[in-house]
Design goal:
The strands form three sheets. Strands 1, 2, 3, 4, 5, 6, 7, 8, 9, 10, 11 and 12 form a twelve-stranded mixed β-sheet that branches. A three-stranded mixed β-sheet has the order 14-17-16. It folds into three domains: 115 residues, no CATH class; 126 residues, Jelly Rolls (Sandwich); 72 residues, Phage tail protein beta-alpha-beta fold (3-Layer(bab) Sandwich). It has 329 residues and is α+β, with helices and mostly antiparallel strands. It comes from Thauera linaloolentis (strain DSM 12138 / JCM 21573 / CCUG 41526 / CIP 105981 / IAM 15112 / NBRC 102519 / 47Lol). This is Putative transmembrane sensor. InterPro entries: FecR, FecR_N, Ferrdict_sens_TM.
């Protein structure tokens, strides 16, 4: 495949590729109900990239037949009970086989493989704490991919996806600068504690101690001080605004919000939940306040139904929707 052809193929985010593979495995497992098949069809129709991912799996169906897979992988993916870690690991491996493989299956293989095979990576709903060689402490949020590049002259992190919280350590006598690179530019820590989040089209940086210099890929930057946050774009930054300590509650496994739009809340909660989570436009503008556990998203959804005029509709454990409450009777 030449470069022009590869650029013409759709970009499938890793979390969509994994969700598509989860659906494929679910429909190969017993029992399969009509509700499950209908839920899969709804997931495929929800967004164009969902159907694109599904068609890529369909195109490589022969390679996914149990007899064509390594025995251990086939057993774990198709034979292990639902929800078991071995099954989840096998699904990730199958997704890599399909979406990061060679030949006609590869679609932006370098982008996808670089996230699955990053130095450090968390799955959906997972958090991880690491300590770097210089003593810097980093917390990885859900679905995060991070590369570490420490050299003689600099300390550099490359955030490929997700969100990290960083508590930098002094670098002794070497005084190597500490950088975090994102798709939009670079953040240089100046003795600090801060978070960096890679969103679509922009990076979000929030500083809680010290300061951080922001350097867009094209254009001038700025320096954030304590309790300031902004969004970094390739050609500049937004105006700084105050931080909110509630934004770091994810490190303790909580989502704390105040008067947040329901559709925004569902989008954020969905980052910690496998499968498809949808908010009906009729209730999107409702406001949510409270503390919600990220380790139990079903419990968080049930809390919504107890405080707002909404129903939680579940077809399978991979498909849920928030809809207006049905009239009694």
């Amino acid at each position: 495949m030449n470069a022009a052809a590869e650029d013409a193929t759709p970009r499938i985010p890793p979390h969509v590729a994994e969700a598509a593979m989860e659906w494929w495995v679910e429909l190969q497992s017993d029992p399969v109900t009509d509700d499950m098949r209908a839920a899969c069809l709804r997931w495929r129709g929800a967004r164009p990239e969902h159907e694109q991912a599904w068609q890529i799996i369909a195109a490589g169906h022969s390679r996914l037949h149990a007899s064509a897979l390594p025995p251990a992988l086939a057993h774990a993916a198709l034979g292990a009970p639902r929800g078991k870690p071995a099954r989840r690991r096998a699904i990730k491996a199958l997704a890599v086989l399909v979406f990061a493989g060679g030949g006609a299956w590869g679609i932006h293989r370098r982008d996808i493989a670089s996230q699955w095979f990053a130095d450090y990576r968390t799955g959906t709903g997972e958090r991880r704490d690491i300590v770097l060689a210089d003593g810097t402490r980093v917390t990885l949020d859900t679905d995060t991919a991070l590369d570490i590049r420490f050299g003689e002259h600099e300390r550099r992190l490359h955030l490929r996806s997700g969100r990290i919280h960083i508590d930098t350590a002094p670098d002794g006598d070497s005084r190597r600068p500490f950088f975090v690179d994102t798709a939009q530019g670079r953040a240089q820590a100046l003795g600090t504690r801060f978070t960096v989040r890679q969103d679509d089209g922009a990076s979000h940086i929030a500083v809680y101690e010290g300061s951080v210099a922001l350097i867009p890929r094209h254009g001038g930057g700025l320096t954030l001080g304590p309790s300031e946050q902004t969004r970094l774009h390739p050609h500049g930054t937004d105006a700084p605004r105050p931080t909110d300590d509630r934004d770091t509650a994810w490190r303790q496994g909580m989502l704390i919000v105040s008067a947040m739009r329901l559709d925004d809340f569902i989008a954020e909660l969905g980052r910690y939940r496998s499968g498809w989570l949808h908010c009906d436009p009729q209730v999107a503008a409702l406001r949510v306040s409270g503390s919600f556990p990220l380790a139990d998203t079903d419990r968080a959804l049930d809390a919504l139904a107890n405080t707002l005029p909404v129903d939680i509709v579940r077809r399978t454990r991979y498909w849920a929707a928030v809809r207006p409450r049905a009239a009694p009777g």
